[in-house]
Amino acid sequence: MDFFDVATTQRAMRRLKPDPIPEDVLRRIMDAAICAPSGGNRQGWSFLVIRDPATRARLGDLYREAWGELMKLPYYAGAAKEPVGSPTAKMLASAQHLGEHLGEAPVLVLACIAIDPGAKPGLTTGASIYPAVQNLMLAARALGVGSCLTTIHGFRDAQVKALLGIPEGVETAALIPLGYPRGKFGRPPRRPLGEVAFAEHWGKSF
Predict the structure, then answer these.
(1) Distance CA 137, CA 94 (A)
(2) Do the beta carbons of residue 99 and residue 64 sit within 8 Å?
């Protein structure tokens, strides 16, 4: 696919078929992930590729519990009151579907990053993992595989780490379900570029 077609139609696909992803397709996706840049070229990332049905089911249970925790937060509690059919209500319905069916996705990828001992947590802590995550998701889109980035599992982070044997000093940065989508790829609704990109000075439209 043309790169710009991939980049402009790679959207969060939360409704996924249970059909398996061929090994060669999955390996191409993961190989694209590790070609991303990283701070100091340290490549401190690790990716758990989970296909075992029992493990996926248990992660699905933990994610469902985490979704319940998320819905107690003010933004999501308010979003639940939006009118049916509104953009926010559609987004929430899609996210809720994932909350209830995450374990049914044929592949779950947990992107992890090693944290430097004594490092002070901040906005950029472990940020080197996210270019790799985006590479993964773009590669998936190019191969017709749906994906989305979620961090909701963090509400059950200790249980997730214990389940998967993740060692101390390694943080879980993103959980990415992969599967062939039930819906269609397409350009997502976005605010106009002029509202979010500024030229030279804050507030001056690009």
Answers:
(1) 18
(2) yes
Instruction: Cite the DSSP H helix spans in the chain.
Output: 3-9, 23-33, 53-70, 74-79, 87-101, 129-142, 157-164, 193-196
Say how many C-beta atoms besides its own lie within 10 A of residue 23's C-beta.
Answer: 9
pLDDT tens across the length of the chain (206 residues): 999 999 999 999 999 999 999 999 999 999 999 999 998 888 999 999 999 999 999 999 999 999 999 999 998 888 888 898 898 899 999 999 999 999 999 999 999 999 877 776 667 767 889 999 999 999 999 999 999 999 999 999 999 999 999 999 899 999 999 999 999 999 999 999 999 999 999 999 99
- Structural domain boundaries, residue 175: 3-187
Structural domain includes residue 200: no
Number of domains in the chain: 1
pTM, entire model: 0.93
User: Is 193 part of any domain?
Assistant: no
Beta bridge partners of 178: 107, 147
145 in a domain, yes or no?
yes
Would 131 be classed as within a structural domain? yes
Give the pair of three-digit tokens for residue 181: 């989508």
Q: What is the CA radius of gyration of the chain?
A: 18
The secondary element (H helix, E strand) that includes residue 148 is: none
**Eight-class DSSP state of 108:** E
In the block, which residue shows the tokens 């605010």? Answer: 191
